Task: structure prediction
Amino acid sequence: MAKRESCRRADTPWLCIPVDRSKCQRGKQKKMLECISSDINELGGGCEIIILGDMNAHIEDMDGYTDATGNMMLDMCEMHDLVVCNSTEKCEGHITWEVGSLQSTIDYALMSHRMHDRLKVMNIDEYDSRSLVSDHKHIKVSFRREMKVGRRQ
Result:
């Protein structure tokens, strides 16, 4: 599921886990979150972490209530010391899913603290200006470049 990558212009390896629930049957969120947690344990040692995608989880900060999947996601974040970027001041917008008059936040960006420190902005396109022809909204994350301080040789 996950792949270890090297960050350009940086010595810190990072682990990016895209979440694709299209192959995940309804009710299998626990298994998916366990798989993500296992990937972090197996591949994430010393890596900066980015997890982005459809978690189908509801949390108090976003939807006014926390469901079982939301609790599992928050437990995983606590276990791996991850930031839920959707609920920080760096996130613009919060509705990630909409069908007719129904709307919710079920897609999340979870990051290690160092990646979150480098995050400039997370933008959720609530107005479909970049339509994905989906009931899910476009999410864009922008990072600051890490600059090394020192003289050029």
Q: What stands out?
A: The helical segments are 29-43, 60-63, 68-80, 113-118.
